Amino acid sequence: MSKISEQDIRKLASLSKLKLSDEEVILYQKELSSIVTYIEQLSDTDVAGLAPTSQVTGLKNVTRADELIDYGVSPAELLKNAPATKENQFKVKRMIA
Amino acid sequence: MNWDSIKKIAQDVSSGKVTAEELVRRSFSIIDETKDYNAILSISKHRALERAKDIDNRIKNGEKIGSLAGVPFIAKDNFLTFDTPTTASSHMLENFYAPYQATAVERLEAEGAIMVAKSNLDSFAHGSSTENSAFGPTLNPIDKTKVPGGSSGGSAASVALKIAPFALGTDTGGSIRLPASFCGVVGFKPTYGLVSRYGVVAMASSTDVIGPITSTVEDAALVLDVMSGKDQFDGTTIDRDTKTYDGKPMSLKGAKIGVVKEYLSSGIDKEVKKVILDNVEKMKAQGAEIIEVSIPSISLSLACYYVLVPAEVSSNLSRYDGQRYGLSDATAKNLDESFEKSRAAGFEAENKRRIMIGTYVLSSGYYDAYYKKAQIVRTKLINEFEKVFKKVDFLVGPTAPMTAFAIGQNVHDQLQMYLADIMTVSANLVGIPSISIPAGMANNMPVGLQLMAPQKADRALLQIAATIEEDN
């Protein structure tokens, strides 16, 4: 039922911002199909009355005072790893082709 | 040559019997001798020696350093550190130099430990064998034709090769315990939130933990003692135990130990099973009460894990977009193409698989069937563990159903590779502490014994593990 098609892979790659070659599309179509078949075993599990878990130690809405914290890192140091910068900001390619 | 216990090393450095510089140079020379294993990706040549000399000078001046004075260690290359790149074994971060250090590293340094080198891992910690590294696999120190396990394979191999007394790993579904098991060393996964993850490359935020890989349980406890506790930079951190994590052996008399039926049924290597059962017999002989328990949803834990973790991976790895840091494709004509080409070139195949699986299970139409369903199965699993922990204090079983497999054996079959984690993922989904300790040999390779305890019982877990270790 859940066979993933090559078209699905192209869609997933596009949503995930990954450029794939045609060979990769064929390979991932096979591999992801078998992984999805494996995880489908969850569908038959009876989970009536149970709520989903996303946090395991019971923490809720951890807040801190709205104060400036000194992380000890300057903007210049953070920008050092950027491929392109201009006027102390990240520089990116044009958005509209 | 074996290292002394961490406690002894720190004492000897503090008393001036040995210098921190000698210890750092010793690590460097073993790194050089063991290059073939590809356990180490980069060395902190400059800073480690500088810190060692500084510590030695301060000791000469009568200063007190700390509980880890002069103790060299290895950090998995997904911990942000000064002086070396932090690559996460990926081309994406191949040339990335962190502007700040992980809290765990900072805390260890504050007690006098010295980070000497960074270790190999599966790219972004996605894997069970360290073969997914962009910089080649690490070889198993016991048999070079075998994998060291993963994803903290470089860290486990480093400890087995005696490069340093301890190494740091991360464990999202078994990545500390599995390589510890395959390399014959100790690997400890603490309760979720006990150690700050600030400054560590995120994989799956609802299960990621940081822990030590060592030669002995006592060493693991001492390292945990320094790293654990709340951190204002990681909102998921919890309070540590008020007592020291000491890893001191305790009596097994009256301890209720549950043998998990599901871990010893189908799919386990016969020799591995025998080693584990022999260990259980020894615990019984020492006065432990052995109780067979069943956690039926364990059979679903791996499927549950391979929905939730890729979902979180797809979210956490969206930050690698080639714009602010990391690999950036220079040929792209516009921003969208820059994202797609940078990510295509920066990620390994397994990273891409997990990102796409995650995107799939989170997409509308599949969200309820996969992601939400897995979150509910997670609740079911948690409830079953809680029920069992009303009857027993600890759980015992193998760390993995097999011993280290051959390099290349599973690289083209993801499901076979994923199955290596079948006995470790539950502890991550439930958030409980778990440790792998050497239990014996099977197929001429080490076998790991896995022990688990309820959330926040890390101290008791380390003590019982020390007791069992002593008997082996």
Instruction: Give the CATH class of one domain in chain A.
Output: Mainly Alpha
For CATH, the homologous superfamily of one domain in chain B is named as Amidase signature (AS) domain
Distance between the termini of chain B: 21 Å
Strand content of chain A: under 5%
Quick tags:
heterodimer; A: 97 residues; Histone, subunit A; 34% helix; B: 472 residues; alpha/beta; Amidase signature (AS) enzymes; 11-stranded mixed sheet
Description of the structure:
The complex is a heterodimer of chains A (97) and B (472). Chain A is built from three helices and two strands, in the order H-H-H-E-E. In chain A, strands 1-2 form a two-stranded antiparallel ribbon. The radius of gyration of chain A is 22 Å and the shape is flat. Chain A is mainly alpha-helical. Chain A has a domain of 38 residues: Orthogonal Bundle (Histone, subunit A). With 472 residues, chain B is an alpha/beta fold. Chain B has a domain of 222 residues: Amidase signature (AS) enzymes. Chain B is built from 15 helices and eleven strands. An eleven-stranded mixed sheet of chain B has the order 1-3-2-4-6-5-10-11-9-7-8, sandwiched between helices. In chain B, helix 9 crosses helix 12. Chain B is globular. At the A-B interface, helix 1 and helix 2 of A face helix 9, helix 10, helix 11, helix 12 and helix 13 of B.
Outline of the structure:
The complex is a heterodimer of chains A (97) and B (472). With 97 residues, chain A is mostly helical.
Helix and strand arrangement:
The complex is a heterodimer of chains A (97) and B (472).
Chain A lengths: L5 H10 L6 H18 L35 H5 L5 E2 L2 E2 L7
Antiparallel strand pairs in A: 1-2
Chain B lengths: L5 H9 L5 H14 L6 E4 L1 H16 L11 E5 L26 H8 L3 E6 L33 H8 L5 E6 L5 H7 L2 E4 L19 E6 L2 H11 L28 E5 L9 H16 L3 E5 L4 H19 L18 H12 L2 H14 L4 H22 L5 E5 L15 H6 L5 H6 L3 E9 L2 E8 L5 H14 L1
Parallel strand pairs in B: 2-3, 2-4, 7-8, 7-9
Antiparallel strand pairs in B: 1-3, 4-6, 5-6, 5-10, 9-11, 10-11
Helix pairs in contact in B: 2-3, 5-6, 7-15, 9-11, 9-12
